TrEMBL record:
InterPro entries assigned to the protein according to its UniProt record, in alphabetical order: Poly_Biosynth_Transport (IPR050833)
Keyword NAD applies: no
Chief location of this protein within or outside the cell: membrane
Keyword Acetylation recorded: no
Keyword tags: Cell membrane, Membrane, Transmembrane, Transmembrane helix
Topological category with respect to the lipid bilayer: Multi-pass membrane protein
GO CC terms of this entry: plasma membrane
Protein name: Polysaccharide biosynthesis protein
Species the sequence originates in: Hymenobacter sediminicola
Coiled coil feature spans: none
Domain of life according to the entry: Bacteria
Amino acid sequence: MSVAKKLASQTAVYGISSIVGRVLTYLLVPVYTARFAAAEYGIVTGLYAYVSFLNVVFTYGLETTFFRFANRAGADRQLLYDRVLSLLLVSSVVLAGLLAWQAGPLLQLLGLPPGHERYAVWLALILGLDAVAAIPFARLRLENKARKFAAIRMANILLNVGLNLFFIVVCPDVLAGKYLTDLQPVVARLYDPTIGVGYVFLANLAASAFTLLLLGRELAAFRFRLSLEPLRPLLTYAYPIMLMGLAGMVNETLDRILLPTWLPEGFYPGKSSLTAVGIYGACYKLSIFMSLVIQAFRYAAEPFFFAQSTEKNSPATFAQVLKWFTLCCALIFVLISVNLEVFAELFLKRAEYREGIAVVPVLLLANLFLGVYWNLSVWFKLTDKTYYGTYIGAAGAVLTIALNFLLIPVLGYMGSALATLACYFMMAAICWWLGERHFPVPYPVARLLGWLLVATGVVALGWLVSVESYWLRQAWHGLLCAGFLGLMVAVEKPQRVLARR
């Protein structure tokens, strides 16, 4: 099997769990937006923004480090697995304990309303369990056990979605006498209405615990071996990745943390800042389709890139991978942005959430550049110069904070979306420029930028040309998407590439 087909097949398997699973999770957005007011949903959005930061702290770059050291000549993979997992196990217990112990003061520090301390405790447990699961999952990817990886991920998501539906939809409806009234005594014992949005976190916690059970075989092979001296080179490699990840989280989630702080009072008439965060967070979810592709690709590509690093033709392979990745993402950007009216009707059930959909094309394009950056970042991972990732991520974080500070008071959440786009574009540009000097790869930069300009022009046509009739408008949007796809096939001829491969 060619390297391209192998990467594509692995991406497809990871993509099934990632895309199908995330789509299932995404189907909860209309449930949340129908059952919770924007201010309540703002609590979920805000807390999960902090969880994204803490996820990076809990794993501190050891996942990528495990891949790097496991692919070195003569590496004892079982010994490496034992040492890395032992370290993560100890640190997860300590960090989760600290978070749970300081739940109250931390919530006050974050400016969240009192009475939600138990949410912080549940999130601390989720973070600890997910960190411990990270290395067994990495081992599955290293051993190319994509199907098992995908199956466990799917089980996690199905349980999470099922519990969400049970506690947020079924239980309240049964108690309200809408259906299954015979079950009211049982539901009354299981369901506590005062928990409210907290069931989102409880469902997540149950799914994380279940995932560890499914990883039982990988955990049974683990032996506790904690010795700091052999871990020094791993930690030296890992800490820049952790800093890079933290900077990445600043770029990805800080807007939802800064928005309620820097949004002027009364910027959106009749809406609180927490409501604005809820609207922005719900609209942000519509850019998830781009994130899904990036995540599925990352699962497959990370071990692939390390395995290909010693091949003579690896630069040419990396260039082809980036080209087709960018073209696929450009098509997704056009399909979603042009047909956003339909997606918004499907997923944002309350009209108040649909007020913010103009941010979605901006966020989709931003995530596309994030995926490009992730592809380009292969050079500093393969040359063991991970500190460059820290510098680039830090530069992006500074730009994110500066632009949010300048734009939120003027443009509201659109300012946050534009800051995200500017940040990821700059990171991709710097990473490409530095990569050309340390690990040259013949990327078709001008050609790809040309395609992104065409895609942006198609999206602009879809938004600016007004068609009054609903069905004629959908036909016009369909024509634009088909035209873009046809142009791409005619110029790039993917069928010939596949035939050659």
